[in-house]
Every structure is written in C-alpha cells, then in structure tokens.
Amino acid sequence: MFYSSLTDASRLQFAVTAMYHWLFVPLTLGLGFIVAFMETRYYLLCKKAAKNPADSLSIQNNADFWLKTTKFWSTIFAINFAIGVATGIILEFEFGTNWSNYSWFVGDIFGAPLAIEGVIAFFMESTFFAVMYFGWNKVSKRFHLASTWLTAIGANISAIWILVANSWMQHPVGMHFNPDTARNEMVDFASVVFSPTAISKISHTISSSFMLAAVVVIAISCWYLLKGREMEFAKKSIKLSAIFGLCSALFMAWSGDNSAYNVAKTQPMKLAAMEGLYNGEKDAAISIFGILKPGYEQGSDENPFYFNIKVPKILGYMANRKAGAFTPGINDIIEGGYQFEDIDGNEYTAKSFKDRQLNGKVAIKSLELYHFAKQQGDTSKLAELRNILQDNFKDFGYGYLKTPKESIPNVPLCYYSFRVMVGLGCYFILFFIASLLLLRAEKRGGKPLEKRKFLLRIALLSLPLIYICSQAGWVVAEVGRQPWTIQDLLPVQASVSGIKASSVYTTVIIFITLFTALLAAEIKIMCTQIKKGPHVNEE
Hints:
By secondary structure, the protein is mainly alpha-helical. It has helices at 2-51, 56-97, 100-134, 141-170, 189-193, 196-227, 231-266, 268-275, 314-320, 330-335, 353-376, 379-392, 411-443, 453-479, 501-532; strands at 175-178, 183-186, 281-282, 286-292, 305-311, 326-327, 339-341, 347-349, 484-486, 490-491.
C-alpha cells in the first residue's frame, strides 16, 4: 500500500509538471524558426535596398514591415520561452527528489544526454536569445540574424537531447548492467543517440511542435482580421505559417507511421493498447473509432467493443511492413508462444508473462546472492551468478510485477487519446491547406479573408485543439509505456524515492497552483501584447 500510494503520488507529480511544461515547449520550438524566416526576409530586403538605390525607398518600406513583424513574433516567443524554462528546471529536479531509485539504476546513461542538453544546447539557446531579443541596433544585422537562427536551432537541439533520453527509456540500448554497483552503464553512446526509436521520436515530436507553432500564429493573425486590424501583417503571417505548418504536418504524418512501426517491434503492449487489440491476428485491421466496454478484463471471451469501425489489413502492414504477418494483442502478449520479429529483424518465440516474471525473479535473486557472495569473499560463485543475472536481465523488471494485469497500461485512455491525436492531426493538415487556398483565392479576386468571419472563428477555436492534440500524443507515449519507467527493466513502483506519499501530494498541490499561476500570467501577458499589436515594436 505504501508503494502504491507513493507511486501514484510520484506519477501524478511528474505528469502534472510534464504536461504544464509541454504547454510552453512546442511553441518555442516552432516559433523560433518562424521568427528566423521572417528576419531572414527583412535582412535580404535590406541588402537588396542597398544594391538598388533607385528602388531603395519601396524596398526599405517592405523591409520595415518585416522588421515590425519579426519583432512582434519574437516578443511572443520570448514570453513563452521564459516560462518554459521555469517549468523545465523543476521537471529535472524531480528525478532526484522523487525518482532516486531510477536515477541510481540508470543515471550513468540517462544523465548523459541531459548533461549535454544543459551544458551545450541550453547554454547556446540562452546566450543567443539574449542577443536576439535585446540586440536590435546593438549588433550588426548579420550577427542578429545569425543569433535568431542559432536560438531556434539551439532550442531544438535542446529538445533533441531530452527526446534521446526519453527514447532510451522506451527502448533501452547501448548499456551493460554492472552487478558490482547495481547500475546500468553506457557502453555504446551512438546506439543510444541513433536508435530507431530515438530517430522516430525526435522526428515526430519536433515536427508536431512546428505544426503547433504554425497554428498559434495563424489563430492570432485571424483575430486581427476579425478585429479589422493589421491586415497585411496578419495575411503574410498566415501565409508563411501555413506553408511551414503544412510541411511540418505532412512530415509528422510520415514520421508517425515510422514511430508506430518501432512501437510495434519494441513495445507491442503499447501498440495493442493504442488499438484496443486484445486478440492478435494476421493482417490485422486498424480501428478508426470504437467504443470500449467499461471494466473489460484481459482474458474475457467477450468483444471488448460495443462497436468498432475498422479498415482491414492496415494495422498489420504498419506494424510489420509486410503482408500476412501476425500482430499480437494483449492476450497474446500475456500468454506468449507466438512468432515475433524484433526491430533488428531477428525472429523469436515470444515468452509468456509468467516466464518473464520467473526470469525477472531469478535475475533479482541472483543479484542479491551476488552481493552476498561478494561480502563473504566467495569468488567461486561470483562468475556463475553474474552469468545467471546476464542471461535473465532482459526480464529484470518483470520480477517486481505480481500479476499479468500490472503489465497492461490503461487501454481506454491510450485508445481514445491516440484517436484524438490522429484525428486532430488530419484536421490540421486540412486546416493548413484551406488557409493557403483561401489566401490564393483572395489574390485571384475572390472574397477577402477578413470577410470570411465564420472561418476566422474556426481558426480561433482551433487554438485549444492543437494543444489538445499535442498533449494527447504524450498521453499515448507515456501511459502506453506503463507500468515501465524503463521498458522491461524497471517498473514505476521500483523507481520511486523512499519518501512519504503525503509529502509528494503536498508538492503536487503546490506545483498545480504555481504552474496554473504561471500559465495565467503568460496568457495575460501574451493577450496584452497581442491587443497592442505589432506596431508597438517599431523603432
């Protein structure tokens, strides 16, 4: 009961912090590049004006417009950047305060990308951000432009290293367990950084962040059109962001397919939960939408759905990249015995939960005996116990689980969150296409965009939807991984610190209050800036 309560409290604390943090991060990642594109336009126009004295006045007027536009969106970037940093710092501290067992077990590996992120990437983006925001008329136009690009690149490099760390938790590679220290130690840094899971996660997450930033810019711009203000500013911001967003959304769709394939090979239980798939099948159909029966238990002969709209064979191909392959469901993963191909293309017979649980208990026991033999100076036993531990270490975490049910994530939450993410992702692809088509129609003599009030209001309503889409993606990724802190190696109940659950719940209340206040402050500051308009930033 102690660990159950403590684990729930620690998970809640981390989830609250992570979800608030992710309200700020994706806008930073995408808006940085949008601002950089705008300032590049300004810089090139300034160079053009210098080379064409006869047309310099008209060109300079255009350049001044892009300067005004750049400064406005860089202010929005700065507001969001500052608050994102505050929540991120707290998030990293929680690994030491609430997840000390986890930090001990894998700190040698997990800490490396976080250290690189802090020492190199965060330092880089923070340094050049200062120049980007405060350096107007203090440094040359070229150096300022370079600083803006380096701020955007630095922010994304920072995210890449954090995503590398998270990807390793989903698919632990490049490490060796040292029984003398009871720690996992890195042996192949390249495998950690360039694992297929890391590459697909980085691609999918960053492209989704770009898409979010594009929607935010378009929504704010549509507000100006509804108010009859800053028409040129709004329309050009919409055009640039829609192009950026559409490219990002299409890449996100491709990377999402690749991510699903990696999940199928490294986390089959997550994929089964995402699809509500209890019984596996060859050429499995993908569920478009269905309603799951509440309280459905694994192993039941009932249909888990009230109804389920499916498309034949799609899931089987996504999960296996070939026809006729078997995609396991939750019951199959628990029972084992089916043929499976891992991410490296090696075929094997899947082990049952009971077999993996037994292997995990053998690994845990052999580690205990290893330390006992070492204390007693029984060197003859050490090599034997080390080999037993090594043979069973892949299932180490299963030794902490008591029942098969503990290995199954929250299926309804994964299933519905996945459909929210995919459904809204498809919507935003159409959203960007529609934005570009409407601007093109206006250019060809059609109805001005500012007169399409209904569509402008839809764009505004899309602002919370993009954040829901972004958060739903993380719910799928992290809830679908449960009960694992590190896939197959360390469950959450074995990862937490030995502190009182009541203390953790107290911090949860404090963090919710603090983060909500920060969020409210950011919204108020941003709304104030938006109401003032871009003209306030003119020199």
